[in-house]
Design a protein that fits this description.
The chain contains four helices and four strands, in the order βαααββαβ. α2 packs antiparallel against α4. The protein is 29% helix and 32% strand. The mean pLDDT is 93. The radius of gyration is 17 Å and the shape is elongated. The protein has a four-stranded antiparallel β-sheet.
Length: 148
């Protein structure tokens, strides 16, 4: 197992020095699910707070752009694209978030943050009608890099 990237030889935390790395075109995608009752999924678009899916989509995009403010050792990145897609199934909302940049480090934390915050937003919108909501399956599903 390799060493933890954000821990120095004395056990202290550190920001990874990426200054010597070449900028590459990077993309990452992450997923999350919010499990819920079938009735909740059906009612999702009719909640009194407004269109929950559009709200969650915007929240995820905004969160990706602020990842370095939320996670202390993340580098601030110039994001060239962020997308958040939500799909209502029988008893869940599936979320797919992606982020892209040309930089010296990857964008997986931005994609994971977008998926997580979109899931939290769906949870917030539906919690009044479903006490059994569950956020699950937050994971990285793709990470690529290629020369500029």
């Amino acid at each position: 197992m390799s060493e933890l990237s954000h821990v120095d030889e004395t056990g202290g935390v550190r920001m990874v020095d990426v200054g010597g790395k070449e900028p590459l075109r990077r993309r990452a995608a992450a997923r999350a699910e919010v499990r819920m009752a079938t009735e909740t999924a059906r009612r999702l678009r009719e909640l009194p707070k407004g269109d929950a899916l559009a709200t969650a989509q915007v929240a995820g995009i905004m969160a990706a752009k602020r990842t370095a403010e939320l996670i202390p050792l993340c580098h601030p990145l110039p994001l060239s694209h962020v997308a958040v897609e939500l799909e209502v199934g029988e008893g869940e909302v599936a979320i797919l978030a992606s982020a892209e940049t040309t930089a010296q480090t990857g964008v997986e934390m931005e994609a994971l943050t977008a998926a997580s915050v979109a899931a939290l937003t769906v949870y917030d919108m539906a919690k009044a009608v479903d006490k059994e909501l569950e956020i699950t399956g937050v994971r990285l599903v793709e990470k690529t890099k290629e020369p500029v």
